[in-house]
Design brief:
CATH topology of the largest domain in chain A: MetI-like fold
Shape of chain B: globular
Number of strands of chain A: 0
Number of domains of chain A: 3
Strand content of chain B: 15-25%
Largest interface: A-B, 53 and 56 residues
CATH topology of the largest domain in chain B: D-Maltodextrin-Binding Protein, domain 2
Order of helices and strands of chain B: HHEEEHEHEHEEEEHEHEHEEEHHHHHH
Oligomer: heterodimer
Number of helices of chain B: 14
Order of helices and strands of chain A: HHHHHHHHHHHHHHHHHHHHHHHHH
CATH class of the largest domain in chain A: Mainly Alpha
CATH superfamily of the largest domain in chain B: Periplasmic binding protein-like II
Shape of chain A: extended
Radius of gyration of chain B: 21 Å
Structural class of chain A: mainly alpha
CATH class of the largest domain in chain B: Alpha Beta
Helix content of chain B: 40-55%
Distance between the termini of chain B: 44 Å
Number of strands of chain B: 14
Distance between the termini of chain A: 48 Å
Strand content of chain A: under 5%
Chain lengths: 549, 339
């Protein structure tokens, strides 16, 4: 056995006390990480290489388009057009194939198929060649407009001084007309600095977003009233934060903001101070009522009355403002027809999300209730609403409902759509919650009953907290779906973010920049949906007590 | 068919109840202090918000002109964006007082749906756009062409009729929106792009090389676009109709927003005097002030000014007057006289 010890290497260490050797080279540090995670075997290596290649092919053009070649200066489309025109001179010239131009489709002995092909190729070459000329023409026209308006970028001025494209244009057109290719080559060669300049400016035209960002955010909301929306947005953040994070500082006072947000938010966004007072009275009654039994009913009735008064009779003067003379605190009433853009999307999303969860819980409990009529009603509602597409609900709200109402009683289209969206998502939410309820073992229900808890208390204290926790991913999924579904509002003529983008694309002075506007609209949605998704993951981590394998 | 019947019934019900309940749209509008006008959700040159969020366009000017006629205030209008689907419902339900939404005046809309069209503020028609280098000069040379069309529009029907009538064939390339149609056409997926001529002009402005395309002279359908109101309220119909007529007549008489003050002080003809209210009481007969037409022209301008500002040759849309010129200039705009 002693011989074996010496074979181990170092006789200075007795058996069993050899210090740890360093791991083999290439298994630690950055290299080791790479080997283990990216190149651990042939399949893995191929996968990594393919992924990197695909990412490279996707990201590089995207970054070029959206950042390095993008145009952000200027205030109209000319600054964007001129770069594209300059670049297109070069593009068309590169596409142009002189072999194809030289083809002779009428040559003797060609079979008809080849002749047709050759004719098409020759046609294509001719189109490319004339495009070189017409692009220079477009460039010159735009340049002259920009000179008139005094908006020529300084770097372009230097290039134009050097190249003199306005003087080259007649010669180029003549050369193209005469099919004098050497002349075309030399002129395009002279234009090279201009083309190179254009190729650095033929990406996204963010000017369109810059000029219309307020419409994307507010729609037609009066610009000088926009501060109200900022206040409302700050309040919204203040209202939502304490609900999301239960260990944040100042949580108690912020909860007060949360409780009053439905009223204050309404006040700031819609306007009219008396509404505010009206709602506050309702709220006070609710809190002051010792039994808190009649309170909710009265409060709900008052708020409802107020909403009807607001949306139904919006053209009459504020009732309470006339009585108590607080006219000076009235904000200008902003009818929903003037809402739009992100404001419309947010109002729909926030109201839909806030309304759908409680209504959904009630519906789910109703569906599992022992009372046959309530169960039947809830089931019928859920199944009916789930059985029709959202767009049908919206069309019903937007088109059919007004026809059933008597003439002159028009109740706000925006509110109708809002109610439609909220009810629709409630039905889905109800099924999500029901899934959670069914996942709770029967023992929990029985234990709650055995403790003598009433139905509502057992639900509130035992069942729902567990059921909702299980369903967090599904609930947030529903929320995200609802938020994205608000884009359907554009179909019934509510000016949401997507419709603003579409509308921009049809406007004469911005037509042709649809990639930019849709990209921006998509970007807005990604921000909000990604935020919701991250929060749901945070919540799952925080609540991951039990129920985990 | 069923839907049409349903809508018609609903319209009939709405009209009957209108007869009972409504006191008259003009009085309602005056009491409310603003006009409620339906426009499109966005069509270049006809109605679209500008970068400051203010509605602009030929149809928008129509709404503003009526607001000026009543209130002498071009901003006393609430614009309701309507889609092709809900435009008639919002008018029937009384949510809006008038609709100026590039809507084609047809028999069934006028009679069956229970609306009243009050004139034409733009004569449109379906046209064709091709690349200049295709060498085509007339739509009759388009045999066998691939044509980009939008789904579910009357354009599709008109196109088929036109090609059949001329014994030609075409290969349809069907797309969803005008934007997609333009992209398909630019990418060479079709040789021809067809839609209303005004729409073609607007799309051409967005092409990478606008000068390489041309609109063929043939117009293959009649699309008279004009404002409309609910059936049955003739006083209100008259207000809108004569506001439009006043703008066209002002062009005919050479009254513009620049010279309207001077013309009203020293009318160049008796008709100018009657139009601008320097003489007679035409405005009062409509239930408006005497100087209603003068206000309209001072604040909105005559028809030519509105046209040139929104869709004329100096705008990105770049439309010629064509059919929409005055009768004496080779167009078909002709209004009854003011007397």
């Amino acid at each position: 056995m002693a011989t074996e010890d010496t074979r181990e290497g170092n006789p200075a260490h007795p058996a069993g006390q050899h210090p740890d050797l360093p791991p083999p080279a290439g298994t630690t540090g950055f290299i080791g990480w790479l080997r283990e995670n990216l190149f651990a075997g042939p399949l893995n290596t191929i996968g990594t290489i393919v992924t990197v290649a695909v990412l490279y092919m996707l990201l590089v053009p995207l970054i070029q388009w959206s950042i390095t070649d993008a145009v952000i200066s200027g205030s109209d489309r000319h600054g964007c057009d001129i770069g594209r025109f300059a670049a297109n001179i070069g593009n068309a010239y590169d596409d142009f194939s002189r072999e194809n131009l030289a083809l002779d489709p009428n040559q003797e002995g060609l079979d008809p198929e080849t002749a047709r092909l050759w004719a098409a190729r020759q046609k294509r070459a001719e189109v490319d060649l004339t495009t070189v000329g017409s692009m220079l023409g477009n460039f010159d026209n735009t340049y002259q407009i920009m000179v008139r308006e005094g908006t020529v970028p300084t770097d372009l001025l230097a290039v134009v001084d050097q190249v003199r494209p306005l003087e080259l244009q007649p010669a180029l057109l003549q050369a193209i007309e005469a099919r004098d290719l050497p002349a075309v080559d030399s002129i395009v060669n002279e234009l090279e600095p201009l083309i190179a300049w254009g190729q650095n400016r033929d990406g996204a035209c963010w000017v369109v977003i810059k000029e219309r960002v307020l419409i994307f955010m507010l729609g037609f909301y009066p610009r000088h009233e926009a501060w109200r929306l900022i206040v409302a947005a700050v309040l919204l953040v203040g209202a939502v934060a304490p609900l999301l994070f239960d260990k944040m500082p100042f949580r108690k006072p912020l909860l007060f903001v949360t409780a009053t947000f439905p009223l204050t938010g309404f006040w700031f966004v819609v306007g009219d101070f008396p509404t505010m007072i009206y709602c506050w009275i309702a709220f006070a009654i609710y809190w002051l009522d010792p039994n808190r039994i009649r309170g909710p009913t009265i409060a709900a009735a008052l708020v409802l009355l107020n909403l009807i008064y607001y949306f139904g009779l919006s053209d009459s003067d504020g009732l309470l403002s006339t009585i108590i003379g607080l006219k000076f605190l009235d904000f200008r009433y902003v009818p929903t027809g003037e809402w739009g853009g992100l404001l419309a999307t947010m109002v729909n999303g926030v109201v839909g999300i806030t309304a759908s969860l409680p209504i959904g819980i009630v519906l789910a409990l109703g569906r599992r209730s022992n009372m046959p009529i309530i169960r039947a009603l809830c089931t019928a509602f859920i199944e009916t609403v789930r059985g029709v597409p959202l767009i049908t609900v919206l069309f019903m709200a937007a088109l059919m409902l007004p026809l059933f109402l008597p003439e002159g009683v028009s109740f706000d289209k925006f509110l109708r759509a809002l109610i439609g969206v909220a009810l629709f998502s409630s039905a889905y939410m109800a099924e999500v919650v029901r899934g959670g309820l069914q996942a709770i073992p029967k023992g929990q229900y029985e234990a709650a009953e055995a403790m003598g808890l009433t139905y509502w208390r057992s639900m509130r204290l035992i069942v729902l907290p567990q059921a909702l926790k299980i369903q967090i991913p599904a609930i947030v999924n529903s929320f995200i779906g609802l938020y994205k579904d608000t884009t359907l509002l554009s179909i019934i003529g509510i000016l949401d973010v997507l419709l603003v983008a579409t509308q921009t694309n049809t406007r004469g002075d911005w037509v042709g920049f649809s990639s930019e506007t849709y990209f921006f609209a998509g970007f807005i949605f990604v921000i909000f949906c990604f935020g919701m998704s991250r929060y749901s993951i945070f919540l799952e981590r925080k609540l991951h007590t039990g129920h985990r394998s | 068919m069923r839907l049409t019947t349903l809508l018609a019934t609903a319209a009939a019900v709405a009209t009957v109840s209108a007869g009972v309940a409504a006191a008259g749209t003009l009085d309602d509008v005056k009491a409310r202090g603003s006009l409620s006008c339906g426009v499109t959700t966005g069509l270049a040159g006809f109605a679209a918000p500008n970068d400051q969020g203010r509605w602009e366009g030929l149809d928008v000017d129509m709404c503003r002109a009526v607001a000026v006629a009543i209130f002498n205030d071009p901003d006393a209008v609430t614009f309701t964006p309507t889609t092709g689907k809900d435009r008639f419902t919002v008018l029937q339900s009384g949510e809006i007082d008038m609709l100026a939404r590039n809507t084609t005046w047809t028999f069934s809309r006028d009679v069956n749906l229970g609306f009243e069209f009050l004139g034409v503020n733009y004569y449109d028609g379906q046209g064709f756009m091709v690349r200049k280098d295709l060498g085509v000069n007339s739509a009759k040379e388009l045999d066998g062409a691939a044509v980009c069309i939008q789904t579910g529009t009357t354009t599709e029907l008109n196109l088929a009729d036109f090609f059949r009538a001329n014994n030609m064939s075409f290969e349809p390339v069907v797309v969803e929106t005008g934007d997609q149609a333009r992209q398909a056409y630019e990418a060479g997926r079709c040789d021809v792009y067809t839609t209303d001529a005004s729409g073609l002009a607007a799309q051409r402005a967005g092409m990478s090389d606008p000068s390489a395309h041309k609109i063929l002279p043939e117009i293959i359908s009649k699309e008279p676009l004009g404002p409309l109101v609910r059936h049955g309220d003739h006083q209100w119909g008259d207000v809108v109709r004569w506001t439009l007529n006043a703008m066209i007549t002002a062009e005919e008489l050479g009254v513009t927003s620049a010279n309207v003050e001077e013309q009203s002080a020293n009318p160049s003809s008796p008709e100018v005097a009657r139009l601008l209210g320097s003489e007679g009481d035409l405005g009062e007969q409509l239930g408006l002030s005497t100087d209603w037409a003068k206000n309209v022209i001072a604040r909105i301008g005559n028809y030519s000014e509105s046209f040139e500002r929104n869709i004329g040759v100096n705008t990105p849309i770049g439309l010629e007057r064509g059919l929409n010129a005055l009768w004496r200039d080779g167009g078909i705009l002709y209004t009854p006289p003011f007397r």
